[in-house]
Amino acid sequence: MALTEDTIRDLAGFESGAGPVVSLYLDVDGRRWPRYAECEERAARLVREALDRVSGNGHSGAAADLHRVEEQVRGGLARSTTRGLAIFASGEALWKVIELPVAVKDQLVVNDCPHVHQLEAVFNNHMRFGVLLADRQRARVFVFELGEIVEKDELFEALPRHEDDAGDRDRGHERGHFEAAVHQHLKHAAKAAFEVYKHRPFDHLIIGAPDDIAPELERDLHSYLKERIAGRVSVPPSASEHDIRSAVLEVETRVERAKEQAMVERVRNGAAAGRGGVTGLDEVLAAIGERRVDTLVVSQGFATPGWRCSCGQLASRGRTCGVCSAEMEPVDDVVEVAMAGALHQAAHVEVCLDNADLDVVGRIGALTRF
Ligand SMILES: [Zn+2]
């Protein structure tokens, strides 16, 4: 199933009443994990570790759900369009498998409620992509949201047919008709894209059209759409929705990387200037404690143990809280707690993939409000 706001709301409001809830996030990105068996192994390891944990903490009722989740992963999935997997299970009461077009961080949580932070982050950060595919007589428009088509329209305008008995004298005249029809069609295609945009606005527009008509098509676009052009794909209007979706994902990945890079640059510039940005775990944890994080940027896969105080402070070193001097409790992954804390403070969380500029400053940073 696809991710919608309702899905998150349902999960966040889920009350098991009875047993514990298992939440699994798994990175199944085929570019990082070319062999699916590696994903299965990572899921099996997460499940083994969770089984060890729950046997001692009163959540042993989760064992069956943990096995079921592992089975689900072993059943495989279509990785051409799925890069992240989220599964939520609680006995008879809850079973949800969500395939995401973006990667997630491996995580398995057994708790009283579904663990939805990563889903929230994915949902809050996603962009909508419009696609306009055209040739000389057809046009199709799509809007993609989280890898799913949420809107589409199409247009077919048959070109004037060549008359076999037309003499040479009429050839030029006929060509004029033909070209006028193409011009007209491209204008209609551009208009159709704008109508779709008005109904379902998108952040970026992807164009697919033969080289000899693409420039004219782009010129015909409304200025709102012109400024949203994110790239071209060589996909004809007759392509299958599967092929169109794959091409969109490629562009989406490029746009996403560029967005992350711009964000990391802003964070680093802010940190260098001493205002508006911080880098490194200690500084970021302090900024979250002071509730002044606007956007948290984290390298994908960054996890490290740390400490949490009952006063809300987070720290990489314990055990005495630097703010209230109380004794803090250890946490397995303070990065995860920091992400949850940032989301709770209505900050954005941007998970960055293979960003060397972020890695070099400690794999974490933040834009700060003051
Ligand atoms: Zn404290």
Automatic annotation (TrEMBL):
Gene3D superfamilies per record: eRF1 domain 2
Alphabetized Pfam families for the sequence: baeRF_family10 (PF18854)
Superkingdom: Bacteria
Protein name as catalogued: eRF1 domain-containing protein
Organism lineage: Bacteria, Bacillati, Actinomycetota, Acidimicrobiia, Acidimicrobiales
